[in-house]
Amino acid sequence: MRERLLVVVAGPTGVGKTRAAIELARACDAELVGADSVQVYRGFDIGSSKPTAAELSGVPHHLIDIREPEDTLDAASYATLADRTIADIHGRGRLPIVVGGTGLWLRALLSGLVDTPKVDAALRARLEAEWDAQGPAAMHHRLAAVDPESAQRIHPNDKLRVVRALEVHVQTGQPLGAARTAHALGQPRYHALTFVVDLAQAHHHERVRTRTRQMLEQGFRAEVESLLARHGPDVRPMQAVGYKQMLAHVREGVGSAETETAIVRATLTYARRQRTWWRSDRTVQARLSPDALQADALAAIARA
Predict the structure, then answer these.
(1) Which residues partner with 62 through β-bridges?
(2) What is the Cα–Cα distance from 262 to 244, expressed in whole angstroms?
């Protein structure tokens, strides 16, 4: 096995990545390293489908439950933590399996981040005001004119990323998308075998609907009420898919059936964005179903 080898299990939310990665880890005596921007927060359990101790059944899973919700974690900081964790696992002679769907965090870990200027608060405020006045479609069209690669990658309703890409273009005069493409062609930080797991659309939709119903039955509302009492509504993970919709149910009285539908819809929308992200990644070893992961990954590990 080559030094610094690691396996990455990525893909859209709700397809069974974690279950497949746990089974793979058990088959090759590996340890899991999380790459999920919600599972890192303590207490955000049901809505993030955080694996339980029973589901892990002795398989070590690092980088979950490592932050309080007020203590935000960005991609660069995540990569630093993951580097240390991976080094520890390698030091024990074991294989790290990184599992999660937060694409930017995985990019930071595997390739590093593009060097971009710091946020200009005044410029960002101006661009956000223009977004509010002109609407998402107009701002996305504006981005497409100056940075077509970013516009293709970023969903038109993703205010944060559209504004950031426009902000970088104003600051540097260069498109962020082209810089990221050039950066992606550079030297990788690890010898990584990256597998994207996914399901057929109909199967995935049904799985998301079933999972959402199970989350509600497991006490998702009570979890959000408890988190709201302890941390308030403004912590970052409270805006994550599922939590944002349940927060509206708790605070604004949105009906139960409407909330369930909203969670399913938001989950599927997020999954489409994740697919778009991974579709453009040239480092992916294979794209396959969760059930096919173990055989393909074990064969690739044996060849590495």
Answers:
(1) 33
(2) 10
Residue count of the chain, please give it. Answer: 304
Amino acid at 201: Q
- Give the whole-angstrom CA distance, residue 107 versus residue 179: 14
Q: Which amino acid is at 251?
A: R
- pTM summary value: 0.81
Tens of pLDDT, residues 63-76: 999 999 999 899 98
The Cα angle at residue 118 between residues 117 and 123, in degrees rounded to 5:
95
Torsion of the alpha carbons at 247, 251, 255 and 258, rounded to the nearest 10: -30
CATH class name, domain 5-114+188-199+282-303: alpha beta
pLDDT digits (tens, 9 = 90+) for 229-238: 999 999 999 9
The CATH classification of domain 121-181, taken from the options 3.30.465.10, 3.40.50.970, 1.10.20.140, 3.20.20.450:
1.10.20.140
